[in-house]
């Protein structure tokens, strides 16, 4: 398909990160504006089929939940995948609805915000270190999926196709067709197996995109702070080329200050656009992440050492690292945006006061005050205005997951015969 390819500042096409395949192969990455009509129709049909498979799988899981409500271990095992599937129906529906906004956001990010190799070398080095960290942990999301496939393959091998009690990849109870007959069983295994990959693909793509955008936006604020730190030096160098340097200092300083303010406003405009785009994904990460950690912890402590135990360990590491990653980069952006106030105040504007008259000095101080007041507005990513993306929110989420886990344990102990 003719998928949209963002352009970088140097007018080169973006080399897609591996995680973006999660968008492309789920048919939710935007097509280019000039893609033919049949590609748009085909994409819509494939998305509809994908959502139908999600609904079929989750319907089977919810049926299993209703039939096994008193069996806490089986219930927890089923809910761990049910929560994943439910949130991805929500995510995919949102991305399908926001195709034009998604294309505009990524085009703007890679053209205006993304640091290319020819920019600040120190910043680039730090950004690449962060990106390698995010790249590793988002690829780690695929480990639980691979272990789940291995468990399914082993259980199927031991049961055989002739058995009427063959396993499914998920805990499902299907009554609307004979899911144990050979052809329906293969059909069920194929679509439920594809959904496992689909969930993990979207999960990794969302987190990778969010963290990379937060990281580059944070370093754009760092670049503005660096510009303000060098502002007076640049003003003096430019004024020295004038016939009357002292008379030009205020004019040049205010012009350069306005340039920094303009770049900050463009950065804030991009951030507002990104906040609106990712607010649904952040909500899913924090809300469903707490529930998933709770049931995965329960399954981990009740399972014996083996592939299943390793699956829950990998899943738990992925869930915890996800919250820590997005919380860290959300906090980083908040801190760098807040630091702009101090950068404006400390840009050595007071050293220009002896060179100006009362009116010029008053105008300069009004500009500085306006810049500081503009930077006072906090820059916070949130999930549907309920969960702010910060260290404190992540800490609260992890504590909540542990509390729910203890509650689930208590319920399970109460259900055991004495």
Structure description:
This protein is mainly alpha-helical. Helices cover 74% and strands 1% of the residues. It contains twelve helices and two strands; from the N terminus they run H-H-H-H-H-H-H-H-H-H-H-E-E-H. A two-stranded antiparallel ribbon has the order 1-2. Helix 2 (37-67) packs antiparallel against helix 3, helix 5 runs antiparallel to helix 7 (182-229) and helix 9 runs antiparallel to helix 10. The termini are far apart.
Summary tags:
two-stranded antiparallel ribbon, 418 residues, mainly alpha, elongated, 1% strand
Give a short overview.
The chain has 418 residues and is mostly helical.
| Continuous helix count | 12
| Percent range for β-strand residues | under 5%
Order of helices and strands: HHHHHHHHHHHEEH
Spatial strand order of the main sheet: 1-2
Oligomer: single chain
Biggest sheet features: 2 strands, antiparallel
Helix content: over 70%
Q: What class would the helix/strand composition place it in?
A: mainly alpha
What sort of overall outline do the alpha carbons produce when their principal axes are compared?
elongated
Instruction: Please report the total strand number as a whole number.
Output: 2
Averaged pLDDT, please?
A: 86
Rg is 27 Å
- The unreliable regions are none
For the record, give the distance between the C-alpha atoms at the N and C termini, rounded to a whole number: 61 Å
């Amino acid at each position: 398909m003719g998928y949209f390819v963002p352009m970088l500042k140097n007018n080169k096409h973006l080399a897609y990160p591996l995680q973006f395949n999660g968008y492309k192969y789920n048919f939710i990455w935007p097509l280019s504006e000039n893609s033919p009509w049949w590609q748009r129709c085909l994409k819509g049909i494939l998305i509809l089929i994908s959502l139908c498979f999600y609904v079929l799988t989750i319907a089977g899981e919810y049926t299993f939940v209703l039939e096994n409500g008193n069996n806490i271990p089986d219930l927890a095992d089923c809910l761990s995948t049910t929560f994943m599937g439910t949130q991805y129906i929500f995510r995919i529906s949102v991305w399908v609805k926001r195709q034009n906004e998604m294309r505009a956001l990524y085009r703007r990010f890679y053209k205006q915000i993304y640091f290319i190799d020819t920019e600040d070398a120190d910043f680039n080095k730090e950004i690449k270190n962060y990106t390698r960290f995010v790249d590793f942990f988002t690829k780690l999301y695929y480990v639980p999926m691979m272990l789940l496939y291995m468990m399914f393959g082993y259980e199927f091998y031991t049961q055989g196709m002739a058995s009427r009690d063959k396993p499914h990849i998920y805990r499902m109870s299907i009554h609307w067709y004979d899911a144990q007959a050979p052809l329906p069983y293969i059909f069920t295994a194929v679509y439920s197996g594809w959904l496992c990959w689909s969930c993990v693909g979207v999960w990794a793509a969302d987190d990778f995109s969010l963290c990379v955008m937060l990281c580059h936006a944070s370093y754009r604020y760092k670049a503005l702070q660096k510009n303000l730190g060098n502002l007076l030096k640049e003003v003096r160098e430019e004024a020295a080329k004038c016939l009357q340097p002292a008379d030009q200092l205020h004019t040049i300083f205010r012009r350069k200050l306005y340039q920094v303010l303009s770049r900050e406003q463009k950065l804030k405009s991009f951030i507002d656009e990104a906040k609106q785009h990712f607010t649904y994904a952040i909500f899913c990460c924090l809300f469903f992440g707490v529930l998933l950690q709770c049931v995965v912890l329960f399954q981990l402590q009740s399972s014996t050492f083996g592939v299943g135990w390793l699956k829950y360990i990998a899943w738990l590491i992925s869930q915890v690292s996800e919250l820590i990653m997005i919380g860290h980069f959300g906090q980083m952006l908040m801190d760098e945006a807040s630091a702009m106030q101090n950068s404006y105040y400390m840009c050595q504007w007071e050293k220009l006061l002896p060179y100006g008259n009362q009116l010029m000095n008053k105008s300069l101080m009004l500009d500085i005050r306006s810049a500081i007041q503009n930077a006072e507005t906090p820059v916070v990513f949130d999930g549907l205005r309920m969960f702010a993306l910060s260290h404190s929110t992540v800490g609260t989420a992890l504590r909540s997951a542990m509390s729910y886990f203890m509650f689930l344990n208590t319920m399970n102990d109460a259900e055991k015969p004495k």
